[in-house]
Amino acid sequence: MRSGTITRGFAALVLLGAAPASGCNGVIGSGGDPGGGTVNDRVAAELCVVDTPIRRLTRFEYNNTVRDLLGDNSNPADVLPPEEEVAGFNNQAGALTTSDLLVEQYLKVAESVSARAIGNMDALMEGCDPASQGSDACALSFIERWGRRAYRRPLEQEEVDRLQDVFDWALTDPDLGTFEDGIQILIEVMLQSPSFIYRPEYGSDTPVEGDVVPFTSWEMATKLSYMLWNTMPDDELFQAAENDVLLTGEEIAAQAARMLEDDRAKDTIRNFHKQWLLLTQLDSLTKDTSVYPAYNAGLRPLWEEEIQTFIEDVILRGDGSLETLLTADYSFMNEELANFYGDDVLDPVTGTELQRVQLDPTRRAGFLTSAALMATHANLNQSSPVFRGKFVREQLMCNTLPLPPNDLVIEPPELDPNKTTKEQFEEIGADPSCASCHSLMNPIGFIFEHYDGVGQWRDQQNGKDIDAVGEVVQTEDIDGTYDGAIELARALAGSTQVQECVSSQWFRFAYNRSVTPVDTCSIEQINERFAASNFNIRELLVALTQTNAFLYRRAVDVGQGGAQ
Amino acid sequence: MKRISRRRMLRGTLFGGTVAIGLPMLDAMMPRRSSAQDGAAPKRIVFWFTANGTRQDVWSPPASMDLSGHPMHASLAPFSQKLLFLDGVDQDVAYDSIGDGHQTGMACLLTNAEILPGDLFCEGSCDGATPLYVGWGGGQSVDQYLADEIAKDVVTKFRSLEFGVQVRSSSVWSRMSYTGPDQPVPHREDPNQNFNDLFGDLDTDPFELALIRKRRRSVLDAVMADHEAFNKTLGSEDKQMLDKHLQSIRDLETRLDAAGVLGEACQEPTVVLPGSSYQQNDQYPVTGRAQMDMLVMALACDMTRVASIQWSRSVSNVQHNWVPLRLGEGHHDLSHYDDNTSDAQADLLEINKWYSEQFAYMLGLMDGIQEGDNTLLDNSVVVWVNELGKGNSHARRDIPFMLAGGAQGYFNTGRHIDFGGESHGKLLVSLTHAMDKPVSTFGVPQYSQGPLSGLT
Hints:
The structure holds 2 protein chains of 2 kinds. Chain A is mainly α. Chain A has a domain at 55-199. Chain A contains 27 helices and 10 strands. Chain A has helices at residues 11-15, 39-46, 59-70, 100-117, 121-125, 130-133, 135-151, 157-172, 179-191, 194-197, 217-228, 235-242, 249-260, 264-276, 299-317, 322-327, 335-341, 371-376, 385-396, 421-430, 432-446, 485-493, 496-511, 520-532, 537-543, 548-551, 558-561; strands at 55-56, 198-199, 212-214, 330-333, 355-358, 460-461, 464-465, 469-472, 480-483, 552-554. In chain A, the strands form 5 sheets. A two-stranded antiparallel ribbon of chain A has the order 1-2. A two-stranded antiparallel ribbon of chain A has the order 3-10. Chain A has a two-stranded antiparallel sheet with strand order 4-5. In chain A, helix 11 runs antiparallel to helix 12 and helix 19 (385-396) crosses helix 21. The two termini of chain A are 40 Å apart. In chain B, the strands form 5 sheets. Chain B has a 7-stranded mixed β-sheet, sandwiched between helices. A two-stranded antiparallel ribbon of chain B has the order 1-2. In chain B, strands 5-6 form a two-stranded antiparallel sheet. In chain B, helix 6 packs antiparallel against helix 7. Chain B has one domain (26-203, 259-447): 3-Layer(aba) Sandwich (Alkaline Phosphatase, subunit A), CATH 3.40.720. By secondary structure, chain B is α/β, with parallel strands linked by helices. Chain B is built from 11 helices and 15 strands. Chain B has helices at 56-59, 92-96, 101-107, 142-151, 191-199, 206-231, 236-255, 284-300, 331-335, 342-367, 424-434, and strands at residues 10-14, 17-21, 44-49, 83-90, 117-122, 133-134, 161-165, 178-180, 183-184, 306-311, 370-371, 374-375, 380-385, 401-404, 415-423. The interface between A and B is large, with 77 and 80 residues.
């Protein structure tokens, strides 16, 4: 399918320059004015090919990579400066900057990782014995073999030569001198190489049209592994690269499907959902225990584990559908968590291990009503219709809500023991200056009023029955009145706006960049496949490996960059 | 690992005082000097950031400068003659710039430059149809300018030190230092890591240190050779980024030798470290104190001459549970109440009073370190900055700027000056003069025509 032919699926759309602002991405960036630029620019735009800036490993990816490269589980990259967070994710290629501090810490991380690595020389040498086979021979084989895994491609001869010089220096240095010293220095140097820290992509030498080139099999192996596993390729991917069989869409899709069966896919699924569902905020959550005696800080990691285990189960072992994620009547709990959820849990649970439990389907629906989300999007001492409505709008429907005007003075309601939270927020929301924005959020939040500020079910508040009716307005396809989160969850699951929002979130996370106007055709292609699979997240991930945006890039122009 | 005790050290002279120098003294351990006169202690500059504006109605000192009964600054009373309170200094450039109040307040604060256009950070009034995005800050910040200039005279262990206290995120809301347009500088936020990075060497046998440095130099040489070949293969935008990466490696190598310069008071500081919980809200005071302890010692050891400590970030929503609060909400939430909500105003006073106490703690540490006839504080200027003047209006006017120390008498301290609406760019110009690296304008020239008058 690839070599020679290239899909021209939606070129007409692009050439019209139509930039439908679907949800929160809008269409941003400098990806192009398809009408302008050179002939090659126009060809690339027609083919929906958009380059991504060079990617640097995130701390998460670095940690996973040294785990797979060296069996080092110490998460050494945690000491690096945090990634820039842009468009909801911390892996956006264009946003990651470099700094003196980063470089200084790379040096120290490389020192500690390499020092630990030589603790297991047998694993590094894979049978080469310097005593019998000679240290130079074993060093050379290490450079070529280990270097290929560290750089995720075969080394150039010049690189091998340079690394051999490094080894020679280490071996003749009066203060070093042992074979182990030499190997340690080699690892130290290679871990600071841009070929390890960054993920450069050049594509093959032969354009299919204009300056559009397919990726090499080695590059494709790395693209797939970091996208689907957030780590380096495994032996099978490396073998496929070696055999040069990561060239066609079919070959790539088959690898993607295989990879989603592997445990490493969990890392990516969790990483995505931690950021998309704002689970990062759980760490800094505080609650007023005089209002919520059931709460203790130890629940936070349990809540996170519950929602993550559930999501992972649905996507990797279950039917994978968005609908199940939003509406399932089961979850994973241990005894402590089951006690916290109380009557909502229909199965008996004992022990500290999480186990699958049946939930009361009139009270709980998928991740949406989980304590992790309900407690995060709430205040210290009460639920927050504003935060919950904002969460649904921004994260699930990809709306970006305006912030309050610069000079607006905000007065959140104080606890009134005679009113429900809904009654208080209805008073505030009626203020015309607030209503224009808060009518988008508060009524959605009211639908979640059965869940208190820590996510426990309640039928009453302050002696009054809970009223969980809210009206959803200004959506593309689910305007209407809903009574309770179960109803809303079903509507969200069937909403095209939500489905397309989910696919665009995955697009940004998987491609490490925002959507540009040139991506319209890729987005359409992804959404079609997502829909055809009944909104199966696994199929969505495979679809993301099939667009021209993923399969091609433009040949690198070193003309301007040039040699120094 | 072999170690020798610091107690077995010889004494020599540096900055006009006695210093402990490891035995044997290595040539490599002495700083290279050009402009700094032998025997004279260097000037240092420290930026100190707190967020969300202040209680402008309370902030100013009395005419007498007696702070002992001041509702916010009583703890600064012992240093009142070393302080300069600046009223009526505005971030004019922030009103020209794209970006919301906090974004501009932060990114323009030390740059006096407008925020760059870009597609990175959503500005307040975004929606699906007409998104408004901004990029990073648009110019070099004054601390980084000074670090560059000072680096031409002397090689210190660190070009500059940016300490953070629970800054946590990396965005245009959380970065005030920029090495250039679009080049934000991250913070050192983990006190445990800082302790190793800054003071790990002090305890190490000089012979062993020399070996470590030699090894690092060789490793970095190999890494640089690799980078040079690699960078040539890249397109222009990627190459720009990787060239900056390479420049940082070169700089790191240059500074390897600078490690181990010892001032008189220089020693491993006694620090209470918060452990792995340094990012947890309730560890904020402990983390802050550890960072201050180490920052001051880094200055005493002449590891750098340019530093900053940033408490949280703009829009900080730290819960200051350790001071008596009535509403008990996060800092940013509290800062949004109107002026008549007395409980919120009381809480804001408590929070800013607590920061004033922290400021006093650090000034106390600096003033307790004798360098010849002066103290470290006298030899420094510490600049308290804030992205806003007032939280509920997001006013970037009348920012609560305070100078402490005076940079070896450059500033005429012990005073309160109301400028009645001068541009803050002029303050940045003043700071370049104070540090003997004068410029005539800094950032946008329109808002930085020369130094503020009357400070010296």
